[in-house]
Each structure stands twice: as structure tokens, then as C-alpha cells.
Amino acid sequence: MSIAFALVALILLPPPFGEAEAGAVSLDGGLTIEVVVEVDGPFTVVLAQPFSSFEQLPPTALADLGDGSWGGFVKLPTAENWNLVFDAIESDGTTARSGSANLIELGVDKVIVTGEPEESPDSGGFWTGSIWLVLAIVLLLASLGALAWWTFSGDDQELTNGRE
């Protein structure tokens, strides 16, 4: 199952990195994204390093697209909101590292990485999710009212019967 989405958002990374963007390409066996990042300088290798709170994946080498842009496809094991860091390496071994950006910031559709669309405010929110809570509160109040009526009505008869 191959899914292609338009690149929607851009994020500006600190120098020597410029704009970076990503888009989902496929959801087969995880998530494959296409990443493009601008790099200013004489770098020979640019790597995309995906990581999450629990796991760090091996880096993916990006191809030189010309005009200072580097791009490629990064395969992720799950369709979650992974973070990416870019490393640019010069021929003498000097390395520059970008700040991290998550997939949503880079332009991947939020529905893909979270699995659920956001609920709009006018989609019947209160009654669809809270009807059982409202019914339980009404039943509890009715039960307490019946218990109070039964308790106080029984005490009046016993007190009047015992005095006479």
C-alpha cells in the first residue's frame, strides 16, 4: 500500500542548515518518509538520524540534490511522531549537527503519525462521550433521594407509634 502526500510545512534549522521538510511516502511495514534539507557549506555527507524517546535508529545518508539541498527516503519501523537530527560531515571529518525536529514539524500529516484525526469542537463532543456519565449521576441522585425518603418516612411512623 503506497501513499503519497504533499509536503506541507517547512522548518528552519540553525546554520549551516536551512529549511527542512518531510512527507509520508508509504505505510507498508512502518512508515517511509521523504526528507529534504538545505545545507550551506562544502559538506561531503549529510545524514538523517531518527530517534524517539525509547529508540535511536541508524542514520540514513542523504543524496546531494544540487543547490545545497540534500534528500532521501528514511524508513521508520512505526508510524509515530519520530524526531530527526541532521549531521553534515566535511571531508576533513568536521561535523555540524542540527537541532531536532519531529515529523509533524517537518510536514508529515498529523493523522499519519498519531492515527486519529482531531475532533472538531462542534462534532457533538459533550453528548457523544459523556452521556453515560450524566446518566450515572442522575441514577445516583435518584437513588439517594429514594433512600432519604424511605429513611425519613419510616422514622416518623416509629416515633409517633412509640409515644402514643
Please describe what this structure looks like.
The protein is of the alpha+beta class. Helices cover 29% and strands 35% of the residues. It contains three helices and nine strands, in the order E-E-E-E-E-E-E-E-E-H-H-H. It has helices spanning 103-106, 110-114, 125-163; strands at residues 11-12, 17-26, 31-39, 43-51, 60-66, 69-76, 83-90, 95-97, 101-102. Strands 1, 2, 3, 4, 5, 6, 7, 8 and 9 form a nine-stranded antiparallel β-sheet that branches. A hairpin with an 8-residue loop joins strand 4 (43-51) and strand 5 (60-66). The radius of gyration is 30 Å and the shape is rod-shaped. The termini are far apart. The relative contact order is 0.15.
Which helices and strands, and how do they pair?
Blueprint: E1 11-12, E2 17-26, E3 31-39, E4 43-51, E5 60-66, E6 69-76, E7 83-90, E8 95-97, E9 101-102, H1 103-106, H2 110-114, H3 125-163
Antiparallel strand pairs: 1-2, 2-3, 3-6, 4-5, 4-7, 5-6, 7-8, 7-9
**Major beta sheet summary:** 9 strands, antiparallel
Number of helices: 3
Using only C-alpha atoms, the radius of gyration works out to 30 Å
**Percentage of β-strand residues:** 35-45%
What's the mean pLDDT score?
78
Give a short synopsis of this structure.
29% of the residues lie in helices and 35% in strands.
Primary descriptors:
alpha+beta, 164 residues, nine-stranded antiparallel beta sheet
